[in-house]
Design goal:
Blueprint lengths: L2 E15 L11 E14 L7 E3 L9 E12 L2 E13 L2 H16 L7 E5 L5 E5 L9 E10 L5
Parallel strand pairs: 2-5
Antiparallel strand pairs: 1-2, 1-3, 4-5, 4-8, 6-7
C-alpha cells in the first residue's frame, strides 16, 4: 500500500537583490531558508511531497533524502531551493541513496537526468533529477535527516 507524505517545511524567503525596474528582463535574486519540522500522512487527493511504498510504523521516524540547490536564469538567482527526493523507513537505504546521488553528481560524463535509486524493499527505481541538474543549477548539499510525525 502506498502512503502519501507531506513534509512539514517552514520556509523564510528573502529578496537578496531587487530587480532593476529599468531592465525589462531583470528579476529579483532570492534566498530561501528551510526548517523541516516533520511529516504528516495525508490522503492521495491531498497535497503531498513524496509517496512511501509501504506504511510507516505509527510513531516511528522516517528518513528524508533531499537536495539543497541553487537555480535561476540569465536574469535572476534563486538560492536555497529544496527537492524532496524520497522518504525511507530505514536510514541505511536513505544513506545509500544519498551516496548514489553524490556519485551521480560527480560524474561529468552524464548525458541524462535520471539515476537509479532503491526503495526500502531493495527494489530499484528510476529517479529524475531535472530539478537540480541543469545549466543554471548548482547543488549545495545532499542530505538525509530523521523526521518524525507531527500534527501540523
Amino acid at each position: 500500500m502506498t502512503t502519501y507524505i507531506r513534509i512539514i517545511d517552514e520556509t523564510y524567503h528573502e529578496i537578496t537583490r531587487e530587480a532593476d525596474p529599468d531592465e525589462r528582463w531583470d528579476g529579483d535574486d532570492s534566498y530561501t531558508s528551510h526548517s523541516i519540522r516533520g511529516y504528516k500522512v495525508v490522503g492521495k487527493k491531498d497535497y503531498y511531497d513524496v509517496a512511501l511504498k509501504n506504511d510507516p510504523v505509527e510513531g516511528q521516524p522516517l528518513w528524508l533524502l533531499f537536495v539543497n540547490y541553487d537555480t535561476g536564469n540569465s536574469f535572476q538567482r534563486e538560492e536555497g531551493e529544496i527537492e524532496f527526493v524520497d522518504v525511507f523507513s530505514h536510514s541505511i537505504i536513505a544513506v545509500e541513496n544519498q551516496r548514489r546521488i553524490q556519485e551521480y553528481l560527480k560524474d561529468q560524463t552524464k548525458d541524462h537526468y535520471t539515476m537509479e535509486l532503491r526503495l526500502d524493499t531493495g527494489e530499484k527505481y528510476s529517479y529524475s533529477a531535472t530539478a537540480f541538474i541543469g545549466y543554471f543549477e548548482s547543488v549545495n548539499d545532499v542530505e538525509v535527516i530523521e523526521i518524525c510525525p507531527t500534527e501540523d
